[in-house]
């Protein structure tokens, strides 16, 4: 467990408990495919953990469509300084996430059962993360209203990252984003490196008429 130890450090025993829970309860409940068990560490845990390289200290993070906790639970394990909200609309998944939080003793995590568009008025986060949730064009509509001005969306993407970024330009322009870029993190730790689309919000996102004014979480 050389790379695993390098990535997780003193938190490796906690990460190992999470990996075993994913391999057992996660598979039984349909949150992780049986074929993923043999590659949980490289394809899932380490792939998510390296995102921490670009998250500021003590950031408030919302993980959209958290599912089995990837990347939210992993980030909470590797970065206890972060305050993380796991946002997930499905009951069976929030039940799983709450069990994870309790079992792992993660005091920096809150699980919230809701859709992003339902809670936009309650959030003003530093960072939003998402993995395998939706194309960037749609994801941006959900994520950007959850961010404070200057906050960042970090979307874990694959081979179509550049294409999705291009396709999302009209939506990003409408939201008045500051910058967009493609990043690769985890070089030398995971192969291939994790690809991120980073979108930095400039202004408070525009809202439909009649929507409530956003307040801090």
Walk me through this protein's architecture.
The chain is α/β, with parallel strands linked by helices. It has 8 helices and 7 strands, in the order αααβαβαββαβααββ. Strands 3-2-1-4-5-7-6 form a 7-stranded mixed beta sheet, sandwiched between helices. α3 packs across α4. The relative contact order is 0.14.
Secondary structure layout:
Elements: H1 2-8, H2 12-28, H3 40-49, E1 60-64, H4 72-78, E2 83-87, H5 91-104, E3 109-112, E4 125-131, H6 136-143, E5 147-157, H7 161-167, H8 169-174, E6 177-185, E7 194-201
Parallel strand pairs: 1-2, 1-4, 2-3, 4-5
Antiparallel strand pairs: 5-7, 6-7
Helix pairs in contact: 3-4
- Arithmetic mean pLDDT: 92
Q: Please report the distance between the alpha carbons of the first and last residues.
A: 38 Å
Helix % is: 25-40%
Largest sheet strand order: 3-2-1-4-5-7-6
- Gyration radius over CA: 17 Å
Low-pLDDT segments, ≥5 res: 204-217
* Net shape: globular
- How many helical stretches? 8
How does the major sheet shape up? 7 strands, mixed
Structural class category: alpha/beta
Proportion in β-strands: 15-25%
Number of strands: 7
Order of helices and strands: HHHEHEHEEHEHHEE
Describe this structure in a few short sentences:
With 217 residues, the chain is an alpha/beta fold. 35% of the residues lie in helices and 23% in strands.
